[in-house]
Write a structure and sequence with these properties.
single chain; 116 residues; mainly alpha; 4 helices; 0% strand; elongated
Length: 116
Amino acid sequence: MQTKHVIVATLVIVMGMAWAGSASAGPLKKRMQNQHHRIRDGVASGELTYREARQLRRHHRVTRRLRNYFLSDGHLTHRERRILHRRLDRNSDRIYAYKHDRDYRYPRRWRAHAYY
């Protein structure tokens, strides 16, 4: 009877660790998707120039590749998560700064020559 309790307890611990390891990448993926959409929407609205969008996409691509490299062993350590969150924080700050600077590109549907 006691052996069953030990086996069940071990399974619960192992399953909990596996679940925690797989869930650790979820918030990062959601943040990366959110930043991707912010870049796309900034280009569509004209808040981002093409050059700014290209730079932001490059930073996004490097962060995505780093995340995939960190996940290649199947889980993220606390240090790896911290590195990725800091990179995403910097990327988010860049997106905000570029979207709120004075550089503006008129979107295609609002071009001035279309109204003449």
